[in-house]
Amino acid sequence: MAERAKRRRDALDQPREQSVRLLPQSPLDSDAFGRFAEKFARYMGTAQFLVWMTAFVIVWILLNLVGLFGLQWDPYPFILLNLFFSTQASYAAPLILLAQNRQDDRDRVAITQDRQRDERNLADTEFLTREVASLRLAVRETATRDFVRSELRALLEELEERGMVAPGEDRAT
């Protein structure tokens, strides 16, 4: 179907449709970008990130309050630090959402596979249950060892009565 649509698009007797794009198409590999987003989101949720970010903020504030070495590029309201956090949040939120969407997709696939595996296991269990039930029925109809022994004793006694076998001959029981 896609090949047919491509041939139709490339046909010389058909005029090309001019599509207007506001932005050029991105050459980024969406899967690679998604993996990056997952690594980024995973790192932002670690204690190591929180410790480094806290250390950065403390150093920033101390340098700007005390003014060591004549450094005081962001005075008290810390507007530049606030801008830095806003920029970080504006990039972090979409990356975290992208990572969550990818995880949702993986969970959906895993749930589908689990459901299919459960259906197969249920079918196998039902089949084995029917087989065990049929084996139980078949075993009930077969002669047991005690039944066969009693029948052989009865047959031997009958043969002794008819005189075909001498009484008291070697009997293996």
UniProtKB/TrEMBL annotation:
Leader sequence residues: none
Q: Which residues cross the membrane?
A: 49-70, 76-98
Q: Does the keyword Transmembrane apply?
A: yes
Which Pfam families is this protein grouped with?
Answer: DUF1003
State the source organism's domain of life: Bacteria
Keyword set for this entry?
A: Membrane, Transmembrane, Transmembrane helix
Q: What is this protein called?
A: DUF1003 domain-containing protein
